[in-house]
Amino acid sequence: MHKLRILLVSVGVLCSFTATSQNTAFRKLQVAEYAISNLYVDAVDEDKLVEDAIVGMLEKLDPHSTYSDAEEVRKMNEPLQGNFEGIGVQFNMVEDTLLVIQPVSNGPSEKVGILAGDRIIAVNDTAIAGVKMNTEDIMSRLRGPKNTKVQLTIIRRGVNEPLFFTVVRDKIPIYSMDASYMIRPKVGYIRINRFSATTAEEFTNALKDLKKQGMADLILDLQGNGGGYLNAAIDMANEFLNQKELIVYTQGRLKEQRSEFFAHGTGNFKKGRLIVLVDEFSASASEIVSGAIQDWDRGVIVGRRTFGKGLVQRPIDLPDGSMIRLTVARYYTPAGRSIQKPYQMENGETNREMYHHDLIDRYNRGEMNSADSIHFPDSVMYKTERLERTVYGGGGIMPDYFVPIDTTRYTNYHRQLAAKGVILNTSMKYVENQRIQMLNEYKNIDAFKKGFQINDDVVNLLKAQAEEAKIEFNEEQYTISQSLIKAQLKALIARDLWDMSEYFQIMNESNESVMNALQLLEDGGYEKILN
Fold first, then answer.
1. What tens digit of pLDDT does each residue of 335-345 get?
2. Catalytic positions, written as ranges
């Protein structure tokens, strides 16, 4: 009876609270949360209730308004901030063992003598080899605050006993530039994988270095670049545009919520032919850069229509370290094109399933294979700023020169080899056995490109690895995919011997978009587009 009286009093207080409060949506939400957490028959997790309510509200908005808990926020910010704190090694898991591909140059592991090819089997007396520990758990043991120590037990080829190292953790840079090199005489190539806090500095330094090597023309590769910081995109576009040329503007709900971003005219590559490579995974900041270059007729966009992510998110930090990323505006190119592709149905409701299946739908419509399959209504036609060329809005950046997706070398056999890590493991095993010999024979990547071929030894190792992974050999499909498999093996071996830039120096020689870009620069096609 006493409990019943308490319940009735609680309900009375709640009703009184509701009656005397303003009848607003906010109050309604407060009352509902109060009632559930205090009056519901079973105990509830109040934090989880609130999280679910936030997620539920955001799901009614656009596909890019999202909620992230504190741990997700940390993981999301790390690659964009340009560094993390740890031991400084590039690694892959091979047969439940952490294999060091390369220690970070001048990083904490290199300083104590850890070498490429070393296998880390224990961290602070905890075995990480042969125990099926997932990569996330291993990384959490290797990472830690700057100046803290970690004990590593290492197995090294040619050394009979385990080696023991004490590594003092430090800040480890995360680079947003995958590659920078002279792909042809007078033609530079730079590939950016994301737009982070360090991108502007990395890109500027690369430009200056390539110009010293005689670069006159540039291929900027943004294929697969999903975006990042707006400021990094503005800084990159500034390298190409003249003073007071508009790079991008954002528009919120109200007219006064417009922000414009202009070039300062301080760039290092305002002259010289420029080609930007994009594909269906190039998004957000990548689309800002390519849209500005296209609208000002500053360069030629090559590839396939970009993703179409043109919504501006504002991070809203919550007290427990979690975050809401709320869409507050849209991105527009200098010519006034909205970058964002549609995500609403005719009734105005958000259709997330349609949005997330857009790339599959493009493929099924034939858009990835033929530019003729892409149709734009007259309402999304715009004119470029200088040459008044026709360009299109309505979602994503349509390239000036279309390159169909290459499916001729892909087979189910290759997909299985890639999915089960067979190609990667084969390259690492081969390098592990041949590293010293190969570095003595091939002093640099140019010698490697010319002299090294994927021979029968490597192919037999691949087949043996595939058999261990229970992948049945298919002669017909192997023949179809042979050139791709060999290119990937050679590129991965180059990466293990040197770095990521060398990987792309191999793979780019069979990349259709890169080859088409070079052809445009060589045969006058570039000038025909920008006439």
1. 999 999 888 76
2. 284, 295, 309
